[in-house]
Amino acid sequence: MTSVSQTSQSSGNGVTSKTATFAYDGDSRLASDDSYLAPNSTSGNQVACGTYTYDADSELTDLTYVDGSGSPLAGYHWDYDADSRVSDSYSRNDSSSLTPSTGYSGGNWGKTVYTYDCDSELKGTTYSSFANALQQLRQRPHQQQERDLRFQR
Q1: Residue 108 has pLDDT above 80, yes or no
Q2: For residue 106, is it left (φ>0), alpha (ψ between -120 and 50) or beta?
Q3: 94: which DSSP letter?
Q4: What is the distance between the alpha carbons of residues 84 and 78, in angstroms, rounded to a whole number?
Q5: Helices (H) then strands (E): counts for the chain
Q6: In whole angstroms, what is the distance from residue 59 CA to residue 53 CA?
Q7: Is the dihedral of CA 1, 103, 107, 68 positive or negative?
Q8: In sequence order, which residues have a C-beta less than 8 Å from that of residue 68 and are 6 or more positions away?
Q9: Other CB atoms within 10 Å distance of the CB of residue 23
């Protein structure tokens, strides 16, 4: 599916015409979605764009939303454990700087840590809104490299 449209409705609760378009990468994974306030998808009518990033295992790692002018709306990041379960996630839903070029810089990130039992069933979650989560996220690639080295030995 590459697009879906909703036509306007004037009776009852009025509905504005909307269109969403979808783009896929070479591996048939969703790469982006664009939302427009019109039955056609022209850049002047764009209200939001979502961009999806995946790791080598095709696990969704990042989702970023910007408005029609390119200003940040929200961002999400996921890390996975060796069993491909979400180990932690980061989220930000404000208009601070959050674009692919600036990454997870600054401020109001929240972090959720997921724990599992021996049957891989979700056991619990812990959420924190923090200043040091950014530091934890920045350390994550280094920790991942250390973990990968331990598994290679």
Answers
A1: no
A2: left
A3: S
A4: 11
A5: 1, 9
A6: 8
A7: negative
A8: 43, 45, 46, 47, 48, 49
A9: 12
Q: DSSP letter string over 99-140?
A: -TTT-S-SS--EEEEEEE-TTS-EEEEEEEE-STHHHHHHHH
CA angle, 71 then 77 then 80, to 5°: 165
Tell me how far the alpha carbon of residue 87 is from its chain's centroid: 15
For residues 4 and 16, the answer to whether their CB atoms sit within 8 Å is no
CA distance 142 to 63: 22
Give pTM, 2 decimals. Answer: 0.70
Question: Where along the chain do its domains lie?
Answer: 1-54, 55-63+70-153
**Helical ranges in the chain per DSSP H:** 133-152
- For residue range 61-107, list pLDDT tens digits in order: 999 888 888 888 888 899 999 999 999 988 876 555 443 334 444 45
